[in-house]
Design brief:
Layout (H helix, E strand, L loop, with lengths): L28 E6 L5 H5 L6 E5 L17 E5 L10 H28 L4 E5 L1 H13 L10 H14 L6 E14 L6 E9 L5 H4 L2 E7 L5 E8 L9 E3 L5 H8 L10
Parallel strand pairs: 1-5, 1-7, 2-3, 2-4, 4-5
Antiparallel strand pairs: 5-6, 7-8, 8-9
Helix pairs in contact: 2-3
Length: about 260
């Protein structure tokens, strides 16, 4: 005889707990890392529209034009000019209002995801956005003491978590940087020949899917899945050229969906 369970609402001993009965929501929050000109922006723009596109980079020029005739793209651009005469205080004074504008626009974008008038928000690049936050709060991105990162990590992590209160998709584009290793013999650092993600250190944990964009010697573009919370079996999946799109990633992660669901 099966065990009979009482409803959680009938017992004060359960506190805030409720029986999990959450439906599967076919949406993707993705981080895509890659070197320059490896197809990151192209992949992001294949996501379901209308798109909310926040640009801290110039990498969309020549790419966004290919998509704007077929889908609605709401684009906002950010950035300030910093000169060698600027010190930490003047840099903060320049960047703080720009960061505030970015966050305000982001939350407007989240509202559009909630009401269905947009389906995807894109950060191009999240690496530069993370740098902008550091400049807005500290006035510098180097020689930052570890204890200063606590409030910054909390602030940026909180913004990403707000996405999960919407039904929309998100794509965070991430740059790669050279990987260095300390040489204990010489006391110097040397390049390993590999690359590592540049940006918010916890991004990999915060998103649902981590991917890498790359181009092979024959000129084919690839999107390779590094890991996936929803469907771990797709780790290692390599989508190439016409298949290196958000729609093909979507039906790979959620096999019960079809391509039309992601267009």
């Amino acid at each position: 005889m099966p065990i009979q369970y009482k409803s959680a609402t009938h017992s004060p001993l359960w506190g805030s707990f409720q029986i999990a009965n959450q439906p599967v929501q076919p949406r993707l929050i993705v981080a895509v890392e890659g070197l320059e000109k490896q197809g990151k922006t192209n992949f992001a723009l294949t996501a379901p529209g209308p798109l909310i596109y926040q640009s801290w980079d110039i990498g969309d020029e020549g790419v966004i034009e290919k998509f704007q005739q077929d889908k609605v793209i709401y684009k906002a651009e950010y950035g300030v000019v910093i000169t060698k005469e600027d010190n930490a205080e003047t840099i903060k004074a320049k960047m703080d209002p720009e960061w505030t504008r970015c966050v305000k626009d982001y939350r407007i974008g989240l509202d559009r995801l909630r009401d269905g008038s947009a389906r995807t928000i894109i950060k191009d690049t999240s690496t530069e956005e993370w740098e902008a936050l550091r400049l807005a709060r500290l006035g510098k991105v180097t020689q930052v003491m570890p204890h200063h990162y606590g409030p910054l990590n909390t602030e940026y992590t909180g913004l990403i978590k707000e996405l999960y209160d919407t039904p929309g998709n998100a794509v965070f584009l991430m740059k790669l940087k050279d990987e260095w290793i300390d040489n204990v013999t010489t006391g110097k650092s040397n390049r390993t020949g590999k690359h590592e993600r540049a940006g918010h250190k916890d991004m990999g944990y915060l998103v649902q899917v981590n991917c890498r964009a790359w181009r092979d010697p024959e000129g084919h573009f690839h999107i390779t899945v590094l890991d996936c919370r929803q469907n771990p079996q797709v780790a290692g999946l390599d989508l190439m050229d016409d298949f290196a799109t958000f729609a093909w990633l979507g039906i790979s992660v959620y096999p019960h969906t079809n391509l039309a669901d992601w267009l």
